[in-house]
């Protein structure tokens, strides 16, 4: 079931989300709905707060495109109660988008690598070092569960450029 997305202006996007208490069938069904919602909206990552659930949980699936236009589906990953550590000193600027901020894109400077420790859908804790787009995605989504949006990390100039668009989203989407 596709879930309704919380857009910029929705207060849940500014809250520090609560830890997930139990990994059970209800949660697994919710995560399935999150993947469906992410797919239908062409996202690569989605946090639970973006579909109105106050929990420290996000998902990702980084697809890649071949030259002939066909898609290689990435591995679906689930991060429950994630903790990010050891960001690399090397920082990279990359363009980001966000399903809660439709039509807005901008450059965000973040560490190139990060370690993520989280619980999976079987309730097991795992730890992994990520680079590239996967690292980027984890940092963007982890920001969501702390009430932080990518526009908070835009340069003042870039932030000003999207001001009118933000006001429109706030007005239209509620
Ligand atoms: Ni986002």
Give a verbal description of the structure.
The structure is a single chain. The chain is α+β, with helices and mostly antiparallel strands and 174 residues long. It has one domain (11-172): Peptide Deformylase (Alpha-Beta Complex). Helices cover 26% and strands 28% of the residues. It contains 4 helices and 9 strands, in the order H-E-E-E-E-E-E-E-E-E-H-H-H. The chain has helices at 25-40, 132-144, 156-161, 163-172, and strands at 45-47, 57-60, 64-65, 71-72, 77-85, 91-97, 105-111, 113-119, 125-131. The strands form 3 sheets. The protein has a 5-stranded antiparallel β-sheet with strand order 1-2-5-8-9. Strands 3-4 form a two-stranded antiparallel ribbon. The longest helix is centred in the first third of the chain and has 16 residues, at 25-40. The radius of gyration is 16 Å and the shape is globular. The mean pLDDT is 96. Nickel (II) ion is lined by residues 98-100, 140, 144. Nickel (II) ion binds at residues 98-100, 140, 144.
Give a summary of the structure in a few sentences.
The chain is 26% helix and 28% strand. It is an alpha+beta fold and 174 residues long.
Q: Give the ordered list of helices and strands.
A: HEEEEEEEEEHHH
**CATH fold group:** Peptide Deformylase
Number of strands: 9
What's the number of structural domains? 1
Oligomer: single chain
Please state the CA-atom Rg, rounded to the nearest Å. Answer: 16 Å
Q: What's the arrangement of strands in the largest beta sheet? A: 1-2-5-8-9
Ligand identities: nickel (II) ion
> Overall pLDDT, averaged?
96
Terminal-residue CA separation: 21 Å
